[in-house]
Design a protein that fits this description.
Blueprint lengths: L6 H10 L7 E5 L12 E2 L9 E2 L3 E4 L11 E8 L14 E4 L11 E4 L10 E3 L10 E2 L10 E3 L7 H9 L4 E5 L3 E7 L3 E2 L10 E2 L2 H11 L3 E8 L3 H14 L2 E5 L10 H7 L3 E5 L3 E2 L5 E6 L5 E7 L3 H19 L9 E7 L8 E10 L5 E5 L16 E5 L10 E6 L8
Parallel strand pairs: 5-6, 12-15, 12-16, 13-14, 16-20, 18-22, 21-23
Antiparallel strand pairs: 1-11, 2-10, 3-9, 4-6, 4-7, 5-8, 17-19, 19-20, 21-25, 22-23, 22-24, 24-25
Length: 414
């Protein structure tokens, strides 16, 4: 194994090897959540399409002068959200108007009903001064015609669904999901519905990784467990390379006598980009690429077999690659937060410690560290929505500023 690589350098190498996948598809709006847009989404015209009221109240025709407290205007009718007033408003007139309703030509201010004598009666008295232009959402003030409101590569979340619906997109063009093959390895690994003997473990890692892939917009396929035997391992890796854009293996990449994954990948033509990280957990991590005869590139990660190691390295390195393959922004690498929670011991390697973001009484983002545990412990992972990165021999003291990196489905950076 070559010299262990710095985590930031490893991330840079992964992203440098990435390329947006070819291929798009059109899906119904109801199926677009979690996908990456394949093309810019633009407005079809100015928004709002007309002047609209921002309040329930009265639209006033003041000829640009506004209105003063004590002014009284005749009420000429009303404008409702689904039934606009049927003529221009004349100077000195008012109409009742509801939020979102069309402000008629001639009206130049809206006064909230709370600042008037109320909706009853044939005239309205103004209780507080109102300036011209107040409480009107002007035609085109929020978006110009043909404006890009959602750029290509945007992740479609609930808010994006709302924008697409407003613009009339019953179907959406999205990038094809990266196909991710997951291969677990090891004679000691048994199915999750089996009762393991003392020397065995249930095959849990591929389930967690498949969920992480889905959270990143990818399409996972769990390909099974390869035994510690060269022929069977080779056949399963060949299948993964043939059927996937990204192949992720679990275990078998360290220096043991039965760690066969790295050598088998080399035999299959995978070019090593790095093997070994200056990271705890995740030191044996492998990354390579292979360019097929058809010109299509495949990306390969070899993740350590311990649950915390494979889960953490996925978030720190595989997740940014999957984003890049979809044309999505990988986001900020890290943000500062205040350390909280149980202190961890310093280590010679960079540590990625599960942590959960919280706000303290002063409104500061606090990264609450999980309790210390070994990399074989899967239970501490549920205590975090991201990671605190702690370098070298420095233990993260409570209240110190630390680097926080969000996980695949964790909190957004503050």
């Amino acid at each position: 194994m070559a010299k262990a690589l710095d985590l930031l350098q490893a991330r840079d190498r992964v992203l440098a090897a990435a390329a947006v996948l070819n291929g798009t598809e059109t899906v119904a709006l109801s199926a677009a959540r979690g996908r990456a847009l394949a093309a810019d989404v633009r407005t079809t015209g100015p928004w709002p399409a007309t002047d609209r009221s921002a309040m329930d109240g009265f639209a006033l025709a003041t000829a640009g002068a506004g209105a003063s407290a004590g002014d009284q205007l005749p009420v000429a009718g009303e404008s409702l959200a689904g039934r606009p007033f049927d003529r221009d408003l004349r100077p000195g007139e008012a109409i009742r108007i509801m939020t979102g309703a069309v402000v008629p030509a001639g009206a130049d201010a809206v006064v909230p009903v709370e600042q008037t004598s109320g909706f009853g009666g044939v005239a309205v008295r103004i209780a507080a001064a109102v300036r011209a232009g107040a409480n009107i959402r002007r035609h085109g003030s929020e978006c110009a015609a043909d404006a890009v409101v959602l750029p290509a590569g945007s992740l479609v979340r609930a808010a994006e669904i709302g924008v697409l619906a407003v613009l009339g997109h019953a179907a959406v063009q999205v990038r094809c999901r990266p196909r991710v093959g997951i291969v677990a390895t090891g004679d000691e690994v048994v199915p999750i519905d089996a009762v393991p003997l003392p020397h065995q473990v249930r095959e849990s890692n591929s389930w967690a990784l498949a969920a992480q892939v889905e959270e990143c917009g990818g399409a996972p396929t769990r390909l099974g467990v390869a035994p510690d035997e060269a022929g069977a391992l080779r056949a399963l890796l060949q299948r993964g390379l043939a059927d996937s854009d990204v192949l992720v293996t679990i275990g078998g990449i360290s220096k043991g006598t039965h760690d066969l994954v790295h050598g088998t990948l080399q035999e299959l033509g995978v070019r090593t980009e790095f093997h070994g990280l200056d990271l705890k957990p995740g030191k044996p991590t492998y990354f390579g690429v292979v360019d097929g005869a058809d010109g299509r590139r495949k990306w390969v990660f070899g993740l350590p077999g311990n649950p915390a190691s494979s889960f953490t390295v996925f978030d720190l390195l595989v997740r940014p690659l999957l984003f890049a393959l979809q044309g999505r922004d990988a986001g900020a690498w890290s943000a500062q937060a205040v350390a909280g929670g149980v202190p961890w011991q310093p280590n010679s390697r960079l540590q990625a410690i599960p942590a959960r973001l919280r706000l303290d009484g002063e409104g500061r983002a606090v990264a609450v560290l999980s309790a210390p545990s070994p990399s074989g412990d899967p239970f501490r992972l549920v205590d975090g929505d991201g990671y605190v990165l702690v370098a070298g021999q420095h233990a993260p003291a409570a209240g110190a500023l630390v680097r926080y990196v969000g996980g695949s489905a964790g909190a957004r950076l503050p």
